[in-house]
Specification:
By secondary structure, the chain is mostly helical. It has 2 domains: 64 residues, Winged helix-like DNA-binding domain superfamily/Winged helix DNA-binding domain (Arc Repressor Mutant, subunit A, Orthogonal Bundle), CATH 1.10.10; 46 residues. It is 59% helix and 8% strand. It has 5 helices and 3 strands, in the order αβααββαα. Strands 1-3-2 form a 3-stranded antiparallel β-sheet. α1 packs across α3. The relative contact order is 0.11.
Length: 133
Amino acid sequence: MVVHLNFKSGVPVYLQICQQVQSAAASGALRPGDPLPSVRALAEELRINRNTVSKAYAQLETEGVLELRQGSGCFLKAGGSSPLKRSVRSERLGAELDAVIVQAHHLQISDEALRELLDERLAAFRERQRENG
């Protein structure tokens, strides 16, 4: 798993780690039972404090995404169709949609045009899924 941090985004680093792990889990890039890098390894790779990674992993464990096994490491939690709780998925997607709505407003795109664009993008996504098997 590759984590990319943006120190200028204004989003705390631990939240960026959480968001990227959640996205990888939701997209299937990480599968239940997959190991995550140790706190030390990820901190060294990202050149950040270990406490920051620990905070991210603790948050992910609280949300039911990760499972910490004493002496074995950190793993994507098994069980269920998604490792993310429904409320977490809805909250995350809602925040992304809010940003899209604000952007559409600034670009003076009508609600109807925005819905049409969403339908077009969904159709294109479904077509790519069919093509890729």
